[in-house]
Amino acid sequence: MKNLIGVLAVKKIIVLLLVLxxxxxxxxxxxxxLPAVTRVAVAMGGVVERFMLRTGIAANDSxxxxxxxxxxxxxxxxxxxxxSTVGMVAAGIAGAPVWATVAVGLGVGALAFGAYKLLTAxxxxxxxxxxxxxxxxxxxxxxxSPESGKDVICLPGxxxxxxxNVPFPSDVQYRYRISGGAGAVVAIRNYGDLNNAVLNNSxxxxxxxxxxxxxxxTGNTKTDTYMMANYRLSYSSGATVDKSEIATANPSFVxxxxxxxxxxxxxxxxxxxxxxxxxxxPISNQTLADLTNAALQRAASKxxxxxxxxxxxxxxxxxxxxxxxxANPSAMPTGADxxxxxxxxxxxxxxxxxxxxxxxxxxxxxxxxxPDPGIGAPTLEPTPTAQxxxxxxxxxxxxxxxxxVPSHSSACPRPEINLPLFERTFKIEAHCEIAESMRTSIxxxxxxxxxxxxxxxxxxx
Length: 461
Hints:
- Helix 2 (39-54) packs across helix 10 and helix 9 (285-300) crosses helix 10 (318-327).
- A six-stranded antiparallel beta sheet has the order 6-8-7-11-10-9, with helices on one face. The chain has a four-stranded antiparallel beta sheet with strand order 3-4-5-12.
- The protein has helices at 2-32, 39-54, 62-83, 99-106, 191-200, 202-205, 267-271, 276-279, 285-300, 318-327, 335-338, 386-394, 398-401, 430-437, 439-460, and strands at residues 92-93, 96-97, 110-113, 116-123, 126-131, 152-154, 174-178, 184-188, 213-222, 226-235, 240-249, 261-265, 416-419, 424-427.
- By secondary structure, the chain is an alpha+beta fold.
């Protein structure tokens, strides 16, 4: 019994030692598992620092670090906001959030890098990508031109039609004469058109020694002056012959810009549309500015925000990005950085840079202006009074101010009418009595009338 108790005691001691060993090994591991700072976060932090320096906030200002902290919080809020948005088929790569997820949550409509544009506006089908326009002629095995109607200039057996002398429509880049078709000339818009025409002409092309043969297209090449279909003749004898057929340029062709193609799908499917070489291209200055500005405005909209003041009239601009990039030429994030999963699914902003930019010192500054030139203080003119300011107006047109209505005396005419027939004389004076009773009113009216008339005469002189 004593031996059994001793064995159990030893086992307990061993188990305790193992537990302590595991705990001591896990502590540094957990410390190393903290979220890493991504290139996009570093770039956003650097651009915000440049923005704050531009707006007059020094690196030792408490708002400096508060702004960076609020920026990270806003980005993390955007991650959860995008993940909960109805219609998001996939919020990230294989379900993991990426920086494009942050853009969705922040409402940034597009992230441009290289010749590609990631359309992060939410849709029921997921995320969209605008692929650069491609030459339609590079789409092999997709013929678009029928070999009849307007796309055939010379029909088989048309003796009056001279091949290549009749112009094709302006959207036809090349033309091909089917040698085995008695001279028919057909329109060629892409590889598919040419390959179709060559295969349709295979009866003539495959004739030769060695018995029956089959024809297969092996490749295509294209220049501004011709399009070539490479094909292989395989004879029943086992022999093979490689040949080619050429379509020549159409002089009437008018090139049109190639339109970008938009593909909408979950993130994983969208990525398959973008070549890996394009993902290594740096994002544009405006893209980084849009992403940073959206996060900064989201942070500033919170009630507990204590960082740098942000306004719609003074946003983070592409110029701020360019200034930061000039000091960090190799730090611009790429398309791959935008589409890489965030560490632990969260955004971790970098701490404030120890040297975010150059500021002008404000203490212990010595300014040497040279010897004193001995120039006295400038003298000022006497301050004008209200009277002196209004005097030019008060003295305006002195002649008019001295004008007075001249005195005038007159008598009311009292005409007489003598009628000999009646032996009487009539005196007309009733109007004088009426005018005399209204003397004051008539006088005032005439004074006003002649005063105004005189004023017009003086001003018109």
